[in-house]
Specification:
Blueprint: E1 2-6, E2 9-15, E3 21-29, E4 34-36, E5 51-52, H1 55-61, E6 66-67, E7 75-77, H2 85-88, H3 92-99, H4 122-133, E8 137-140, E9 159-166, H5 178-183, H6 186-190, H7 197-200, H8 214-220, H9 232-237, H10 242-246, E10 249-251, E11 259-261, E12 282-287, H11 295-308, H12 313-323, H13 334-343, H14 347-357, H15 359-366, H16 375-389, H17 393-406, H18 411-423, H19 427-440, H20 445-457, H21 461-474, H22 479-491, H23 495-508, H24 513-526
Antiparallel strand pairs: 1-2, 2-3, 3-4, 3-5, 6-7, 8-9, 9-12, 10-11
Length: 527
């Protein structure tokens, strides 16, 4: 296990022997001194020990890792903590210069071998901070990865970051939204966007270690006490503390048990305000770091918002609106058009599009490049799903196989490929695929379940039960494994045990129609 500490959250990650990184399903919230699930595990989304830690997450909590291309969460090495290069850029040239004895007096000259953020424009300074303190829906530009941003660049050169905006929600914000909130402040706007994060923060010293009056003195470097319009009773209530009065401690809408300082500097209403019941209406996704994002970027933002955050129809409706402004039949737009149709579950449209291209051209000209986001692999996978949903298991197999070729260490792709091999009666190849998955990650539950099903289909009930038991040891509530156990015991006339498994499935997953149907079938036979 490795510990990740940030803003009142003491979380834990674990790495298996082959470098696959996951988040443990427990977090210690230091402010409330409470142990609870990590953010994202709530609302029946408990993914136990299988929540993958991808490059987007790791790249903000560590120095850049050595990521394995063609995976989602496999790393050769992962540094511990943030290093100097995250704010000062690559240090190799700087180190070589120092080693050679070429010491530059930085009080007189600029050392161009390293980035000094104080020499950058305000926007470039803030973009360094925004890389990790502007959480949101990040859309990478073409051929870019989360590795590619360097201090001294504009963040918009690498990615666009979007946040949903709602009416009547001025006080709602997410955890790492410091830059967004600051830019909504009167201090920022009235300074002609001349306020920088490092105007108030010393990035080399923790906020908790700063003298008590440090931040008030930063306020008073621009304002005077006499200019403060707060009533004296309010000033006394907050001990003339500018930050306590004008930057409230608030909860966030995405992280439990944590309060943070709201970086929207404003004149607060300190009266107790009852809930007015005002309706929050969706206004749109706003690109925080780029005033002129491309239409392609906007489309992808809406699709990602729907898939990763909330399945609201208006996200897909907005994506469709912007899709109509581009030529979706163009080769460069294949990813987005397939992505949209997949989320709309319009599998027939996907099949029609692929058939018009042809598989040879599809794989050799459209979907042949590997990248850190696995974009072409995901498109292949989604096309495979479309063929499977429309009953064409043979062409589905081709697409899953191509997805695995592009992303060989995405174990979910391999799992789907193994299932497809089994459906197409390539049993030994399917077994090899599932065994490869377990050689990479021996906690991959579905691989045990699928191997159990294969051996059950071959009549080897002993091995089938063994694999099912492995899966249930890892997750006693795994829906498909419980259902498979019920079917196996029904097949062997162990009716009481089968009923127990079916009742457990329905208690956990009341809408499982397969369990309901089999239980009805058993009860009809008994009665």
């Amino acid at each position: 296990f490795r510990e990740v500490v940030k803003d009142g959250i003491d979380g834990f990650l674990f790495e298996n022997e082959n470098g696959y990184l996951y988040q443990a399903p427990f977090t210690y919230y230091t402010q409330d001194s409470i142990l609870d699930f990590p953010p994202g595990f709530e609302d029946n989304r408990n993914s136990r020990f299988s929540r993958k830690m991808g490059l987007e997450c790791v790249a903000c909590h560590n120095a850049y890792p050595d990521f394995v291309l063609g995976s989602e969460n496999k790393y050769n090495t992962i540094p511990l903590g943030i290093d100097c290069e995250r704010c000062h850029g690559p240090g190799e040239l700087h180190v070589e210069q120092i080693k050679s004895g070429n010491i530059i007096d930085t009080s007189k000259k600029v050392d161009y071998t390293i980035v000094n953020p104080s020499h950058l424009s305000i926007e470039l300074q803030n973009d360094i901070c925004a890389r990790c303190h502007l959480q949101g829906n990040a859309v990478l530009h073409e051929n870019k990865s989360f590795f590619d941003f360097r201090p001294g660049q504009y963040l918009r050169e690498v990615m666009d970051v979007y946040l949903p905006r709602y009416s009547n929600s001025n006080d709602d914000f997410i955890m790492a939204s410091h830059v967004d909130r600051m830019k909504l402040s009167s201090c920022y706007l009235e300074s002609n966007e001349g306020l920088s994060c490092i105007d108030c923060h010393n990035p080399h010293i923790s906020v908790q270690e700063m003298p008590q009056n440090f931040f008030n003195n930063r306020c008073l470097s621009c304002h005077t006490e006499i200019a403060c319009t707060e009533e004296s009773v309010v000033k006394n209530k907050f001990n003339n503390d500018c930050v306590m009065c004008h930057m409230s401690n608030s909860t966030t809408i995405d992280i439990p048990h944590v309060t943070i300082t709201d970086h929207k500097i404003s004149i607060q209403n300190h009266e107790v305000i009852l809930d007015t019941g005002l309706v929050k209406e969706f206004l749109g996704l706003e690109c925080i770091n780029n005033q002129d994002p491309s239409i392609e970027s906007v489309v992808q933002a809406y699709l990602q918002q729907y898939e990763r955050f909330d399945q609201y129809d208006y996200y897909l409706d907005s994506a469709f609106k912007y899709l109509n402004k581009i030529d979706i039949n163009h080769k460069s737009h294949l990813y987005m058009s397939i992505y949209y149709a997949f989320l709309e579950e319009d599998y027939g449209r996907i099949v029609e599009r692929v058939n018009s291209i042809g598989f040879v051209d599809l794989f050799e000209s459209h979907l042949h490049e590997k990248d850190y986001s696995n974009k072409n692999a995901w498109t292949s996978y989604r096309i495979g799903e479309a063929f499977l949903k429309t009953g064409d298991s043979n062409n589905a197999l081709k697409c899953y196989q191509h997805a695995v070729k592009l992303a060989p260490y995405n174990l979910e792709f391999r799992n789907k490929y193994g299932n497809s091999l089994f459906v197409n009666k390539k049993i030994d190849f399917a077994i090899d695929e599932f065994e490869f998955i377990l050689s990479e990650d021996n906690n991959f539950i579905s691989a045990y379940t699928n191997l159990g099903y294969i051996y059950f289909s071959k009549g080897d009930l002993g091995d089938a039960i063994s694999y099912y038991n492995y899966a249930l040891e890892l997750d006693p509530y795994h829906e498909q494994t419980l259902l498979n156990m019920a079917s196996l015991h029904y097949y062997t006339d162990d009716i009481d045990v089968s009923i127990d498994y079916l009742n457990k499935v329905l208690n956990l997953y009341p809408e499982n129609q397969e369990a309901e149907s089999l239980l009805y079938q058993i009860n009809e036979a008994i009665n």
